[in-house]
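Notebook entry, structure prediction.
Reason for the run: the old model in the group folder had no record of what sequence produced it. Starting over properly, with the input documented here first.
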Amino acid sequence: MSTAAQMTGPRLPWTRRFLQLPLTRIVLGALVLLLAAFTPEAIIHSYVAKAYRPVWPEVLSAGVALLAYRFHVRRAEKREAAEASGARALPEVVAGLGLGFVMVGAAIAALAATGAYHFTRMNPWSFALVVPIGEMVFVGVLEELLFRGLLFRITERALGTWPALAISSVLFGLSHLPGSSATVLAIAVTGVAGVMLTAAYLVTRRLWLAIGIHIGWNYTLGTVWSIAVSGHPAQEGLLTGQLGGPEWLTGGAYGLEGSVVTLGVLLIATAVLLRRAAVKGTRVLWRDARAYAWGRGEA
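New structure, fully documented this time:
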């Protein structure tokens, strides 16, 4: 047997090679996740009156998506999904929520310092401030499972850490493109947010920190500060203020994620997280990537 054959192992049947292709794994995994996430939503919305379904259907759907991800990884990859196990979930989600809160606060403070943001009032507490939590949990969990759990992780094994980081972040930014309020700067900032969230995953090789940041950022921006989130119109939240100035500074209708100030905050957070990942010895995967990519065996 040649040296090349010994390195790559026996050639698998074309059906197994096709199923092991990174793109195939990503697409099949995404289909499983989307079906698991949206089926409970559809059933609940069909049979439960709106007055009786605040918050919990979205949280339930997020939980079902997590279970579906773990089941799919166990069946398709023949391993336990350590990146989505319950170990360290609570402290890492809490840490992520705090980081999301701090990053939004830093961007608001910078805008206030330039005169682009003026605080006007604090609104009274109401249950309306709790309702968005369900949607934020659903979006945060599902997007992290899709973009970090599937897209980045599988692409990383095929191409290496840095190409996977670039590909997953560009696609994360482009996924927020629909909508007339999305500008080139907004999509670029969202792409950098994807880099930051992937860096958070690299720190622990688990999804929980990134999930916490994602939820914390969206909730703090939209419900605490009453600012549009990724083009979704702003709702009255806990704090109300006014943004004024050029679109490149305030983000315009897209929200703070279209601001150059937010770009700066995200770049700083990304640098800190990547540095932390390097200090903790995060692996950069390259070896045996070709064998994995073309279905000749596990890398």
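Summary: The two ends are 20 Å apart (CA to CA).
The old model has been moved to the deprecated folder.
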